[in-house]
Amino acid sequence: MSNPNSASISQLVWLGLGAVGAFFLLMLVLNWASASTSGEQSLGSVDYASNSITLALEQEPPQLDSSRSTDSVSGIILGHVMEGLLRVDGNNKLVPGVAERWEITSTGAKFWLRDNARWSDGSQVTAHDFIFAWQTVINPVTASQYAFFLYPLKNAEAINSRGMAMDQLGARALDDLTIELEFENPISYFDKLLAFSTYFPIKESFFNSTRGRYGSDADTMLYNGPFVITQWVHSAQLRAKKNPHYWDKDSIGLDAINWSYITADTTAKLNLFKDNRIAMVQLDAETLESALYNKWNIKQFADGTIFYIEFNHRDGRLTTNYHLRRAMQLVSNSSELVYKVIKLPGNLPGMSLFPSWQMGENKLFQLEYPTPEHRVDIDEAKRHLEIARQELGLSSFPPLVMLSSDSPTARKQSEYYQNVFKRTLGLEIKIDQQIFKQRLAKMLAGEFDVVMGGWGPDYEDPLTFADLFASWNIQNRGRYNNPALDKQVRIAQGSLNQAERMRAFGAIQDILYHDSVVIPNYERGRIYVVDPRVKGLVRRITGADPDFSRAYLVDKDSNISKGDSKVAAN
Amino acid sequence: MTENSYRAQAGDFNPIIADHRIQGISRPSLSYWQDAWLRLKANARAMVSLYIVIALLFFTIAGPYIWTVDPAFQDLDQVSQPPNIDRKATLIKPYPIWDGSTGTVDVKDSETLYLAQAANTESVRLLWHVMPGAEGYRLYRNIFPFEQGQSMGLPLFTTFSPQNRLFEDLLDLTPRTFYYTLVALNATGQETSEVVNIAVEVQRVLTIEQAVSKGLVDSAEEVDVGDVVYLKLHPMGTDYLGRDMLARLMYGARISLFIGIFAPLIFVSFGVLYGSTAGFMGGKIDQVLMRFSDFVVALPFLLFMILFKIAFGIGPGESGVMPMLIAMVVLSWPSTARLVRGQILQIREEGYIAASRLLGAKSRYLIMRHMIPNTMGVILVTITFAVPSAIFTEAFLSFIGMGVAPPTPSWGSMCFEGIKTMLTHPHELIFPALLISITVLAFNLLGDGLRDALDAKMRSRE
Hints:
The complex is a heterodimer of chains A (570) and B (462).
Chain A: H1 4-38, E1 46-47, E2 52-57, H2 72-81, E3 86-88, E4 94-96, E5 99-104, E6 108-113, H3 127-138, H4 156-162, E7 171-175, E8 178-182, H5 190-193, H6 204-209, E9 227-233, E10 237-242, E11 256-262, H7 266-274, E12 280-283, H8 285-293, E13 299-311, H9 322-331, H10 334-342, E14 348-349, H11 365-368, H12 378-392, E15 400-405, H13 408-425, E16 429-434, H14 436-445, E17 450-455, H15 463-466, H16 483-494, H17 498-514, E18 518-530, E19 534-535, E20 552-553, H18 565-568
Parallel strand pairs in A: 2-11, 15-16, 15-17
Antiparallel strand pairs in A: 1-2, 3-4, 5-6, 6-8, 7-8, 9-10, 10-11, 12-18, 13-17, 13-18, 14-18, 19-20
Helix pairs in contact in A: 9-12, 16-17
Chain B: H1 20-23, H2 32-42, H3 44-61, H4 63-66, E1 88-92, E2 113-115, E3 124-128, E4 136-142, E5 154-159, E6 166-169, E7 177-185, E8 191-201, E9 205-207, H5 208-213, E10 228-230, H6 245-281, H7 283-297, H8 301-311, H9 321-348, H10 351-358, H11 363-399, H12 411-418, H13 427-454
Parallel strand pairs in B: 1-9
Antiparallel strand pairs in B: 1-10, 2-3, 3-6, 4-5, 4-7, 7-8
């Protein structure tokens, strides 16, 4: 070894080149192997031969029992495979579903069902199926979180929470095809509830035959909607095909929908879309630039969901203290969060629990009842924090637990708030990131001090937001209990006078701000790209969104590329 | 010089003075370690790696005292900035809420879409004239120039009221050129072919109040509107929340190298103790000890990591570094133990051990004098190879979210965050990934060099 340095360096170079070469070769072999094995099974985003499309789901639906489901992913699937008395069409109008016609008065309602509505086993959808489903929802044994959805029905609340006998429920099947309802109080928005999944029918004999496993698998469910689930591989994929027994099957354009990917990772979904594996992708701040670069037609949609920080009001939690909550409220700046941190177009800085598009009596609700003015005031916040410290008798504040979901946006958001509270108030925040299911469970059990919550409207009335903090609402995760707020919610629920109801909503908005119950973060806007060969996608604020149930494929020969805005603009 | 001519002299019969210089060793005597060091020095690869390791330790230990930037500080004016960005910002007066007026700009009737005020990072205020047949408008923003028939970019704003002809853009404004496109909508809300566009150069600005609160200037009196200030310097750019990458890499290195160095030190020393006991005792004890280590090898690491995390009561939002360290120590020692046991078994049968024993050496002496030094090479090499694997494990666990809790950075968690923005802001992934790669490579090559250098059989060979 006369010159060890140069010898070892050239050796290193050769080794490096060899390694890169070997790696490259390995990639080629693997690529070839994956192409040759999975080529048959995996369909493209749009498959003309089977007239199907492939999509990705954000999360695995916890279960698909319509009497118990609460989350938006289950809502998407249920919206494709089930149908209620009424449904919402592509223009967000209520149209007949299983019910052919109906009549709603101030004391009750009557529905006449169509005689050609069928379950996926071929049997008729009858009035009894609806009554059974509703009885299941309000049965205290089911412990449905959405039982309050049926409280407009006479005695429903008493049966659900005070153990009244089930036969007192104000819903009866007069015969196989007629349903008669009695209301607890006059209600102005009842028809809007009926398209929601909690009001979907369940066939009693089938439900009982599943022995409590209804909705947990593809074969433990019976479907009456446009599609039926043929395969449900948990945490991997869901496949649905057109329901041959559906009464309106002629207006269904697709033969199958495959939710073949379950991931919340937007980069992965962007790549799937780029590779023509899925027909639609939701974009975020990170993937937006790639979408612009690829010159896709980006569309925007405000989905009506409001995101906010909620506090835990259970005994023993520090957040029961008003001054602590007020201090945290005073340092938060939703405008900075939306425009500098989340950076997603379409998102609006949160101002109130009610979304900005909400209509009031005559004009926008925000114009009739302006949101209380909020200004960031760090000195005032510190003063409140000091009062809180003395009232709680603490020498210093222990870390607060902030529960958040594990999506990239939620992570960014919680780290942003962690820093804001630390920098301005010196409060330590521990971030508890949980997957969707686990986060819902923890929210319900109250294992948090602060939670990044969100609420999508279930029906188009401000009440869907307004009753969230009513003391009896199970969705009131922090168990906030304020009789003054409860009183206003009762007024909004029971009154038929729109002016009076809007006044109540205005009062609720004020209470929520002045008692520091929520810190609004943002109103969500979605930006997304759809494969231009798929038409008829419906985005909507309530119910199943995105809804592909009446989507169809454009002609194979029209030859559209993703960047072709002339054809794809609409 | 012939035979005849020589005559003996008296001095010839003096005894030769012993000249020790001749028999002396010409080169200095080298101990085992000196010899190893010489051989290591001759290995350029290992030496470069050694310097890299030293530099990394300096980066980790001394770095945060030199670059005293808080790794959790969020500089929201510079989110996801690559290194070497222009940091100039012009100071402006506080921005009043826009009432839709045109301000100081001359309105040119020739342009349908125009700016109400000079565009800057605080806001871009756009106004437009009536477009023929428009029942509504949709405004797009793009970062690529407008091309006929191509996508117009990101839909920012849609209105179905033809009177509504202004929009204030606040979204993620960075100093660059934005291309705005306005499309007229027809009565059914569909886009028509009436399209106008405008290129807007956005200037970076700060209000004086913001500059003071961010500590860029000392007081509001010192500066005036129109002055140029420099935003905070981030030599390696910032991450997705505007946090300084260099500071995060330094703090992240603490976690990574802490795990990378302490875990191997602890489990290798335990493995040495365990393996040498088994090897030296032999017989039944050896059998029992080694079967137990086989059992430990079969335990799955990830599962134990999770179990420890729960057993330690590490709640959500708390650092999982300690359970990670313990799981590594508890589960990684058997390989070292086996290696050392093998060595000890071999050495035990050597002749010099038998000789030593016959001369009355006690076990303690045998172990300390003969066995440990002879296995030292193996032990050191095991440590240097265990370091990169421990760093990798930490990176992997932090990558899957089992490691550090936010906002504490580690190289693995930084990669995890960086991979989401890989396409748009590659520096957030490249820097931590590069550091992991360099560290792991340096430790591997150093270990390789040490193995050659410490091998007793290589002694005094070139």
